[in-house]
Design goal:
Elements: E1 2-5, E2 21-25, E3 29-35, E4 41-47, E5 52-53, H1 56-61, E6 67-73, E7 76-81, H2 82-88, H3 92-115, H4 120-130, H5 138-144, H6 149-162
Antiparallel strand pairs: 1-7, 2-5, 2-7, 3-4, 3-6
Helix pairs in contact: 4-6, 5-6
Length: 163
């Protein structure tokens, strides 16, 4: 793995490009954006320190990605290039790592789907148990929660009062 120094608002992946890397966040917060059929971008996932992230389909299948990863904060990532990852595939631990990654993604997707059924305040409350709600940009958080920025700000204000 290679150390990659990044800065906030750096775009790691350009849409419609083939993904050549998977990353491990040392100290970064990263927003993953997906483009909807309407052309609008929305935050699909948020990754923090000690998490692995990539567009797994593009990374493994060498296809164009419809994801974009933006650094929110932090400065250090570890990256592995696809070719180096393929060299590691001969080891059993690599399959276990891939399985672990896929399971974590499934858990995140399930949690996020359940979150969408809650009221605004409940969404923010559950979100704050997993993410540093007052340190992440409201625009990123509100997009992830499928809320308008004003609804998110109101629910976050209520959350902070009740804390």
């Amino acid at each position: 793995m290679d150390l990659q120094i990044v800065r906030a608002k750096k775009e790691l992946i350009i849409l419609s490009k083939d993904i050549h890397y998977a990353w491990y966040s040392v100290d970064c917060w990263i927003a993953e954006y997906r483009t909807l059929t309407t052309g609008k971008e929305e935050v699909y996932a948020i990754y923090g320190p000690k998490q692995i992230f990539t567009d797994i389909d593009s990374f493994l299948k060498e296809t164009a990605s419809n994801h974009k990863f933006m650094i929110i904060s932090g400065s250090r990532l570890l990256s592995i290039e696809r070719n180096n990852f393929h060299i590691l595939r001969k080891f059993r631990e690599t399959a276990l790592l891939l399985e672990h990654y896929m399971l974590k993604q499934w858990e995140l997707d399930k949690w996020h789907s359940e979150l969408m059924t809650y009221s605004d305040y409940q969404k923010v409350n559950h979100y704050a148990q997993k993410y540093p709600i007052n340190d992440l940009p409201a625009k990123v958080s509100s997009s992830f929660l499928r809320m308008t920025p004003s609804r998110f700000s109101g629910a976050r204000l209520q959350f902070n009062k009740n804390k």
